[in-house]
What does this fold into?
Amino acid sequence: MIPYLGLPVNACRSTLAQADGSLFMPPQASSTAPGVDWLFSFILYIACFFFLLIVVLMVLFTIRYLRRPGRQAEKTATHNLALELTWTLIPVALVIAIFYIGFTTFMDMITPPDDAYEVLVTGQKWNWLFQYPNGYVDSDLHVPVDVPVLLVMTSEDVIHSFYIPAFRVKRDVVPGRYNKTWFHATQPGEYTIFCAEYCGTKHSDMLAQCVVHKPGEFERWLENASNFLDRMSPADAGRELYKRQGCAQCHSTDGSVRIGPTLKNLFARDRPMRDGSTLPADENYLREAILEPQAAVVAGFESVMPTYKGRLKDREITAIIEYIKTLSD
Ligand SMILES: [Cu+2]
It folds into this structure.
């Protein structure tokens, strides 16, 4: 990946494709985004105004009252009631206004509507998993446009932070507890999901897409995506699972080493283990590698693979194994 303005290119691409983002802001693609931006600009402009006012006066006064030869110190006023009231009451009114707008916007952002569509989110080193009400799991978040969506989020390992800049949504994802956030997407399109909490070496790769579907399309997508095991050959379904379950974050299929070993030419080869033994990579080996990754760790790799026990059904594991077989020549 080539860095572009500090972001990986594939993260930037979808952001750049959306015409209505400004130079400083991503597009406003959720119902709360305009309010958040308005408050941000309001505070920014106030800060700019007072910065200029103070600095300009400071410079003028420095010149005006500079000590010069032959000049006497002028008599200084003790106080000026009108001036003191002005510089107290105006800032007080501004601070109250900022608090009021900030507090009401924040309450809107953390109070999901009762009829929100619920998606379960799991953060893990280093990908996101999204589970829909019918049990289907995907590594991207798909949502309908114009429907409030509630995310119930937890982490498998360390603290992550779920962040969609285009929706102005950011919330920590903490192991051992559930954090919620919600949004109401207003424009169909694809928006990048980031992890905003440094969570280890591949933190910056912890990316996903939020696909906002046009009216009526979301149901069709979910129906299609959920039935893929029935519609496809095991090897094809295995390729889908490899992509959707986040295996691709850590395992390549082209021979290159990522966080884990490549899956290319893995099947039926002898695998060196960390403890010095050698295991043949047959079906049972692959099954155990997916369900009990800690049981036998491949030499030269960290034991960081999450277990998929309870998350993949037998049929799905079989499909993945069939797919891994097709990667051997
Ligand atoms: Cu993370």
